[in-house]
Amino acid sequence: MHRNDFVRQLNNPGGDRRPSRVLHLDIPLLLLLLALCGIGLTVLYSASGQSIFYVKRQASFMLAGLLAMLIMAQFKPRFWERGSILIYIAGLLSLVAVLYFGVGAKGAQRWLDFGFTRFQPSELMKIAVPMMVSAYLSRRHLPPQFKHVFIATVATLLPVFLVARQPDLGTSLIIFASGFFAIFLAGLGKRYLVATVLSALAAIPTLWFYVLLDYQKQRVLTLLNPGEDKLGAGWNIIQSTTAIGSGGWSGKGWTQGTQSQLNFLPESHTDFIIAVLAEEFGLIGVLSLLLVYLLLIGRCMMIALNAQTQFSRLVAGTLSLTFFVYIFVNMGMVSGILPVVGAPLPFISYGGSAIVTLFSGFGILMAISTEQKRI
Amino acid sequence: MMHNGAFSDPERERKLFARRLFVGTLLTLLLSLVLGLRYFDLQISRYEDFATQSNNNRVLVRPLPPPRGLIYDRSGQLIADNRPSYNLTIVPERSENVEQLLSELGKLITISERDIQSFRKKLTRRRPFEQTTLHVNLSEAERAILAVNGHRLDGAETSARLIRHYPHRDLYAHVVGYVGRINERESQTIETVKYSGTDSIGKVGLEKFYEKQLLGTVGSEQVETNARGRAMRILQQTPALPGDNLTLYLDTDLQRAAFDAFKGERGALVAIEVETGGILAMVSTPSYDPNLFVTGISQKNYDSLLYSKDRPLFDRAIRGQYPPGSTIKPLFGLIALQHNIVTPNYQINDNGYFYFEGIDRPWRDHNFARGGHGDGVNLSKAIIESCNIYFYGLGIKTGIDLLSNYGSQFGLGAKTGIDMPGERPGIMPNRAWKKGAHGQSWFNGDTINTSIGQGFMLTTPLQLAVMSARIASRGDVRAPRLVKSINGIEQTATQVATNIDIDTKHWDYMHQAMQDVVHSRRGTARSINVELDYKIAGKTGTAQAISIDAEDKYDSSKLNKNQWDHALFVAFAPAKDPKIAIGLIVENGEHGGSSAAPIARAVFDAYMASQESATLATK
Questions:
Q1: pLDDT confidence of A256, banded at 50, 70, 90?
Q2: What is the pLDDT of residue A8?
Q3: DSSP at B172
Q4: Any B CB within 8 A of A277 CB
Q5: How far is A1 from B399, CA to CA, in rounded Å?
Q6: I want to staple B383 with a disulfide (CB 3.0 to 4.6 A). Which of B62, B162, B246, B513 is the partner?
C-alpha cells in the first residue's frame, strides 16, 4: 500500500493541471456519452415525426444532465460513501410520500409535486440503492457474512416494493438488479447465488397471483401470443417487430421508415425508439449502437478495476452492470423477447428525468475515475 | 501488516471483486450476443417477411366506440339516450395556412381564446395529418354556418360523436345518475382496451351500477392510409356492439307526480310495487340537471351545486338517514301481537307521561300536548292517534332483542341490496350494536326511545318504503329493484328470504288500524281522505331534527325552519289489496299528516289513474 502510494506520488509530482483533471472529467467516458447523445437526438428527430420541439427539449435535458454530471463529479467518492445512507433514507421517505401524495398519469403515481418542479423519487433510488448497499458492504469483511447479505437484501427490497406499488415494474426491476449486483460483486457466496436464483424462480407464482396487476399479466401473455390482443399491448409488439425486421442490413434511411413515420409504431419517440433506429439504419445501426454501449460499459469496468477503495469499486461495477440491464430490458422488450415494461433506452429515448439520472450516475463514475490520480 | 481471517484483506477483496466483475462482463457479452442474434433474426433471416408486411402495412386499426345502452322507464319512455355532438377539428396538413384558417373561423363563429390556446398547445405534439380539436359542442346554427362556408375552410372539419343525454333533466338525476369523463383514478381500474374510443364512464346511480352492461363492446376498423398516413379507405370493420338497454320499473308519470308534489321542499320518496319489489318512483329533492356533467361541468356550476345549503347532489332517498319516528309503530305493534305481549283488548290510560321505575324524569308525549290520549287507549287507537305512551310500555315489554330482530327482517339497519351504488345502511340498534358503537351496555331508556323510532334508530326513505311494502304484502321479503329487464330479458325479482312469520289475524288487525289512520275521524292522516275513491293505509311520523327537553314544549314558531321536525309517512294502497307502497320524508316538514301524507296521496292518485287507463285500454 505505502509503496504504491509512494510510486504514484513520484509519477505525479506537481499534480495534474490539465483541464480534464481540474474538472474531474474522464475524457473517454465523456466522448462516448456525447456520441450517444448525438445518436439519440438524430433518431429522436425522425421518431418524433421530425419535430424540432422534441429535439430542442431533449437537448436541453441533456445539457441539464451534463451539468448534473459535472457537479456530481466534483465530490470525492468518500463524500458519496458517507452521504449514501442519508440519500437512501431521503429517497425511501419520498417513495412513501409518493404513495400518499403522489401525482401521476395513466394510472401510476410516480411524482411528487412541489409546485415549481416535479420530482420522481424512484429515479433517485436507481443511484441511491447501489451507493447505499456498496457503502454498507464495503465496511464489512468481504465476502459478506449471511447477516450482512440479509441486511443489504432488505435495503434493496424496500424501495423495490415501494416502486412496484406505484406501479412501476420496470424501474422496480432496475433497482432490484442494482442492489443484487452490488451484493454479487462484493462476493456473495456461491451457495447464496444458487439460493437467490431458486427463490427467484419460486417467487414467480407469487408474483403472478398476488403482485402483478391484470394489465401486467396481459403483457406477459401478449409476449407469448401477440396476435391475441391486436388493439392493446399486442399491437405494440407486432408493429415494433415489423419495423425492426423491415430494416434489413442497412435500413430504409433516416426519416424514411414507413412504420414509424406513418404512426404505426406507438411510443415511437420514448420506449420504442430502438425500433425506429432499427428500421431506418438497419442491423448495422443497431450493432453500432450496441457497440458504443459496450465500449461505454467497458470503460466503466476499467474505472471499477482501478478504483481505490472497496466502495468505489462496488459502486462503479454496479452502475456499469445496471446500465447494461437498461439496454437489455429495452432492446429485448421492443424486439419481443421480454414482456413490455416501461423502460426507456438510455440517452436515446425521449424523457427528462431518466437522462438526468443517467448522467448523475456517470458523474459519480467520473469522481471515482479521477480520484485515483489525486492520492 | 498483520492479518488473519478476522481482519479485512484489501488485496484479497480486490481480487474477489475482479473475479466477480469478470463474471459480470461475461454475462454482459453473452446477453449482448442474445440481443444481436435476435435483431439478426428479425432483420436478416426474416427480412423478406417483415419487408412485405411493412409494405402492406398501410393499414391502421382504429377503435370504434360502442353506443351506450339506453335506459327506458317501464312504459318505454327514454330516460337516458345518446345524442350526436359536433366538434370542430382541424387537420393542419390540409390547410395551406393554419393561422389564416383560424382567423377565418373566428369571424364565422365564436371561438374563445382558451380554445385557441389549447389548440396551439396540442398542435405542437400532433402530426400534421391528425385531427386536432379546436372547439367542442357546436350548435346547430354554427354547424350550418360552417357547412355553407365549407369551400373556404380547407382543413377544418366537423366531426360527430355520441354523448349521453338525459331528456328528463332533473327528474331522474339521483336514480339514473350520469356519465362523465374518465378521471385518473378510474383509468387505473378500467380495462384500457374496452374504453379505447370512449372517454366517459358511469359516475353515479344506475349509470355506475350497470356500467358493465351499458358500456357495450368496442369495435375496430382497418383503414388504408396514403403515403402520408391519412385514412383513405375502410378495409374491414368489426362493428361495435351497443351496450345493453335497461328497462326500469320506474314510471315517469309517478316520478313526475312525486317530484312535483314536493313543491321544492327538501325530501325524498320511494314507491315500491308490492308484488315485485320493483321501484315505481324514487325521488330526492331538490335535484340537479345531470346533463351538466356529461361533457364536463364548469367549476362555477359545480360549486353552486356542491355548496348549496339544500345539498341538491345528495341522494336523500338512499343516503339520507333519519329517525323513522312513529312510522315504526305498525311494525312494533305487529311484533307485540305475534308474541302475545299485547292483545287487541289490552288498554292503558294515557295521561301524557310515562314513568319508568328507577328513573325520576318521565317520558313525555310530544305528539299530543293536551294531557295525553286519555282512557281506553288500545293498540288500534295508539296507531290511529299515534300514542307514544302506549308504545313506551309496549316496547319495554317486548324488549330490544325482538324489536331489533324483526326490524332487520323488515329491511331496517342494513342495506336493502337495491341495484344502485352508495346506499346507506341506517341503524337498527340492539345490544351488540351499542356495545360496538358506544362501548356501553343497553339500557331500558334506550328501548323506550327506540319504541317510538327515536334514539339511535336511523332509516333511509328507501328502507321506509321497503318496510311499508313488507307490511303491505304481509311479510313477503323482496329486495327492491330498479331494473326490470335488460335487453328485453326480464330480470326475475327474487324473494330473498322466507315470509315473515306473523299470523293472518294480526296482519288484518294492523292493516285495518293503518287504514283508519287515513280514513277515521281521529286519524293523524285524515286530511288526505277528501274525495278519495279508494282506500289508503298509512302511518304518519315525526322525527326530531333537534332534541327537546321533557318539560319544554316543541314550538315551531320559536325555531328556525331548518330545526323544525322532519315529517314522515309510510303508506300503501289500495288498503285491501295493496299494489303500491310508499315511504317518504319531508325535511323540516313538521307533521307527517299535513306535509308528508299529501305527497303520498298525489303518487297514489297517479298510480290509480294509470291503472284505470290501463284497464280501459285492455277493454
A1: confident
A2: 46
A3: G
A4: no
A5: 91
A6: B513
Q: Please give the average per-residue pLDDT across B574-582, as a whole number.
A: 96
Q: Containing H/E element for B582?
A: strand B580-586
CA B318 vs CA B98, B324, B417, B488: distances in Å:
53, 14, 11, 27
Q: Residues B153-169, buried b or exposed e (16+ Cβ, 10 A)? A: bebbbeeeebbbbbebe
Q: Which residues of B are catalytic?
A: 326
Given an 8 Å threshold on Cβ–Cβ distance, is A332 in contact with B38?
Answer: yes
DSSP readout, A289-329? HHHHHHHHHHHHHHHHHH-SSHHHHHHHHHHHHHHHHHHHH
Q: State the nearest Cα–Cα gap between A1 and chain B, in angstroms.
A: 9
Q: Cβ B60–A249 below 8 Å, yes or no?
A: no
Say how many Å lie between the first and final Cα of chain A, rounded. Answer: 12
Does A242 sit within 8 Å of B53, measured CB to CB?
Answer: yes
- What count of other Cβ atoms lies within 10 Å of the Cβ of residue B460? 30
- Rounded to a whole number of angstroms, the distance from the CA of B216 to the nearest CA of chain A is 16
Q: Which of A47-51, B83-87, B166-170, B177-181 has the lowest mean pLDDT?
A: A47-51
pLDDT tens profile B130-180: 677 788 788 888 888 888 887 778 778 887 888 899 999 999 999 999 998
Confidence of residue B234 (pLDDT cuts 50, 70, 90): confident
Single pTM value for the model: 0.61
Closest by CA position to B338, among listed B496, B500, B572, B499: B500
Q: Spell out the residues 6+ positions from residue B358 whose beta carbon is closer than 8 angstroms to its own.
A: none
Q: Round to whole Å and give the CA distance between A71 and A42.
A: 27
CA distance B593 to chain A (A): 51
**Which is nearest to B163 in space by CA: B187, B148, B179?**
B179
Whether A90 shows a pLDDT value over 90: the answer reads: yes
Using a CB–CB cutoff of 8 Å, tell me whether A139 touches chain B: no
Q: Do B25 and A53 touch (CB under 8 A)?
A: no
- State the alpha helices, DSSP H only, in B190-271: 205-209, 211-215, 252-261
Distance CA A211, CA A205 (A): 10
pLDDT, position A115: 64
8 Å CB contact between B535 and B575 = yes
Domains of chain B in sequence order: 62-248 (3.90.1310.10), 252-304+321-618 (3.40.710.10)
Q: Which stretch of A213-222, B426-435, B582-591 has the lowest confidence by average pLDDT?
A: A213-222
Q: Is A101 helix (H, G, I), strand (E, B) or coil?
A: helix
Taking an 8 Å cut-off on Cβ atoms, the answer to whether A185 and B54 are in contact is: no
Taking CA–CA distances from B18, the nearest residue in chain A reads: A305
ipTM of this complex: 0.89
Angle at A337 between CA A333 and CA A338, to 5 degrees: 50
Which of A296-310, B225-239, B367-381 comes out lowest in average pLDDT? B225-239
Reference B571, options B499, B495, B518; nearest CA is B518
- pLDDT above 60 for B368: no
User: Band of the pLDDT at A7, cuts 50, 70, 90?
Assistant: very low
Q: State residue B248 phi and psi, 5-degree precision.
A: -100, 165
Q: What is the Cα–Cα distance from A249 to A285, expressed in whole angstroms?
A: 8
**CB contact residues (below 8 A), chain A span 176-205, against chain B:** 181, 184-187
Contact B20 A187 (CB under 8 A): yes
Which residue is associated with the grid cell 402483478?
A212
**Residue whose C-alpha is closest to residue B175's, from B201, B200, B202, B195:** B202
Please report the residues numbered 28 through 87 in chain A whose beta carbons come closer than 8 angstroms to any beta carbon of chain B.
49, 51, 53
How many A/B residue pairs have CB atoms within 8 Å?
Answer: 160
Query: Which chain A residues touch B63 with a CB distance below 8 Å?
Result: 231
Gap from B131 CA to chain A (nearest CA, Å): 13
Residue A155: beta bridge partners? none
User: Running DSSP on this structure, what letter comes out for residue B222?
Assistant: E
